[in-house]
Design goal:
The protein is mainly α. The protein contains 2 helices and no strands.
Length: 66
């Protein structure tokens, strides 16, 4: 199973491809909005993962120094 970030990026890419293939403006717009939403979810997940890693590193560092 793909990690959430990878899944979100794959979905964003699929939505962009669907938007490129769409013949109707409303379908293209819908897919572009969906792609933006998937990309935003990936970015939020990356931020959360980064913050978690930093927090865990600080905890480990504090344990080693005390």
């Amino acid at each position: 199973m793909a990690a959430p970030i990878e899944l979100y990026r794959e979905q964003a890419a699929k939505c962009r491809a669907d938007a490129d293939a769409a013949q109707l403006d409303n379908v293209r717009d819908r897919n572009l909005r969906a792609a933006a939403a998937w990309s935003a979810m990936a970015e939020r997940q990356e931020h959360v993962a980064s913050a978690r890693a930093e927090r865990e590193a600080k905890i480990i560092e504090n344990r080693e120094t005390t």
